[in-house]
């Protein structure tokens, strides 16, 4: 089939005529990195846009996760979800921390608060949930548990840019929230990420840690890493920000069309939107149930025949990868809901410039694929 390939996402790019003047500013300033003017401007602009008090930019979300754990001096065991991108758990291993996987809830596929307490041991120091697909976790219940056991909460909010919940930005829950600005994300700086925190002293510690631990020219206070965002990436971020409301609107329209068009397809269930008061429509996950007559993998391969590259986010489960498989909490009997989701979920193409006719190709292929 020679149809134009369609990917799960296509990055939004600001118009080139907006990029050139930004490049000229960088060329003129000769500040390319290390907290230059674009970097500072983007931190301020993001605090305002997202409604958060402090943000530290990073070169990617993974280094932000690794650094957040260091900034909070997390050790021992951390309770987390197996249903995520592998970077979530990798950030724990990079810090010598043991991940303890807890199953997800069947509706939004986020860490199930009802199952957290049973996994707490004397070694547990923190909980690291993920707002999967941008659907907010049960932040209040997670905080209650954390308070009861004196645990830190670090949200992997890689999918949660711009998400608002009952009390404002979802990024203000927990001790820290981590964002990813990777090319495939709702808001991208090509590569990039950030930590949101709640006080100036913590931000200062994070900023030291992302710059080798330097406090000044001659003082190093910690074995920090190089996690800095360059001026080029920050400039792209500033330009994206001008378009982000339009991006949300266009994604929302794609989301609504899928929901309407797939409503009556037996065995296809669109994941229920979470209780956000503002969504970002970063992913469009469907569950392929037995009534569809073709398995999720069957549909995944069938769509490929039409040039449609849907993605099985998140399959395989993190707990199935070799470096996690032997952990007691990785036993599939401990994670039945996550295992079922990993077998049933397919993320369909969703991005601002997805045309109605290309989206119709996806819908028609799903309809025609019924076994
Ligand atoms: N925590 C969570 C919960 C995450 O989801 C992620 C990242 C992280 C932490 C870590 O944050 P970062 O360190 O990445 O900032 C992608 C992304 O690489 C990754 O950022 C993302 N999550 C994950 C869910 O998806 P892949 O391996 O699926 O990406 P890839 O290269 O296959 O791209 C998907 C499709 O997007 C391609 O088929 C085509 C299109 N694409 C991709 C790129 C890179 C483009 O059109 N242009 C591009 O430049 O991981």
From TrEMBL:
Listed Pfam families: DegT_DnrJ_EryC1 (PF01041)
Gene3D superfamilies referenced in this protein's UniProt entry, alphabetically: Type I PLP-dependent aspartate aminotransferase-like (Major domain)
Keywords, comma-separated and alphabetical: Aminotransferase, Pyridoxal phosphate, Transferase
Keyword Phosphoprotein tagged: no
MF terms (GO), sorted A to Z: transaminase activity
InterPro entries, alphabetized: DegT/StrS_aminotransferase, PyrdxlP-dep_Trfase, PyrdxlP-dep_Trfase_major
Homology family: Belongs to the DegT/DnrJ/EryC1 family.
Listed PANTHER family: PROTEIN RV3402C, TRANSAMINASE
Designated name of the protein: DegT/DnrJ/EryC1/StrS family aminotransferase
């Amino acid at each position: 089939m020679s149809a134009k390939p369609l990917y799960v996402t296509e990055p939004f790019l600001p118009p080139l005529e907006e990029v050139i003047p930004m490049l000229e500013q960088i060329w003129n300033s000769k500040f390319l990195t290390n907290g230059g003017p674009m970097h500072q401007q983007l931190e301020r602009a993001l605090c305002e846009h997202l409604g958060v008090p402090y943000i530290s930019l990073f070169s990617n979300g993974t280094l932000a996760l690794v650094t957040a754990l260091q900034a909070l001096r997390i050790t021992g065991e951390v309770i987390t979800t197996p249903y995520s991108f592998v970077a979530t758990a990798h950030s724990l291993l990079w810090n010598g921390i043991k991940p303890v996987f807890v199953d997800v809830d069947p509706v939004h596929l986020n860490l199930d608060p009802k199952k957290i307490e049973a996994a707490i041991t004397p070694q547990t120091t923190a909980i690291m949930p993920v707002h999967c697909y941008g659907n907010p976790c049960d932040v209040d219940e997670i905080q209650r548990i954390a308070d009861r056991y004196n645990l830190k909460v670090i949200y992997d909010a890689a999918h949660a840019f711009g998400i608002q919940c009952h009390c404002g930005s979802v990024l203000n829950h927990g001790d820290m929230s981590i964002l990813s600005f990777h090319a495939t994300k709702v808001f991208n700086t090509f590569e990039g990420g950030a930590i949101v925190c709640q006080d100036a002293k913590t931000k200062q510690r994070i900023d030291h840690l992302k710059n080798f631990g330097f406090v000044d020219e001659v003082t190093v206070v910690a074995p920090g890493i190089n996690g800095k965002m360059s001026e080029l990436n920050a400039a792209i971020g500033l330009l994206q920000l001008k378009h982000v409301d339009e991006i949300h609107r266009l994604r929302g329209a794609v989301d609504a069309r899928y929901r309407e068009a797939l409503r009556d397809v037996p065995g296809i269930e669109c994941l229920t939107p979470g209780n956000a008061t503002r969504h970002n429509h970063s992913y469009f996950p469907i569950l392929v149930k037995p009534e569809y007559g073709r398995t999720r993998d069957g549909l995944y391969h069938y769509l490929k025949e039409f040039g449609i590259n849907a993605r099985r986010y998140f399959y395989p489960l993190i707990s199935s990868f070799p470096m996690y498989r032997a952990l007691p909490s990785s036993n599939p009997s401990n994670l039945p809901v996550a295992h079922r989701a990993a077998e049933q979920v397919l993320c369909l193409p969703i991005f601002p410039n997805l045309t109605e006719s290309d989206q119709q190709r996806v819908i028609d292929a799903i309809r025609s694929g019924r076994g």
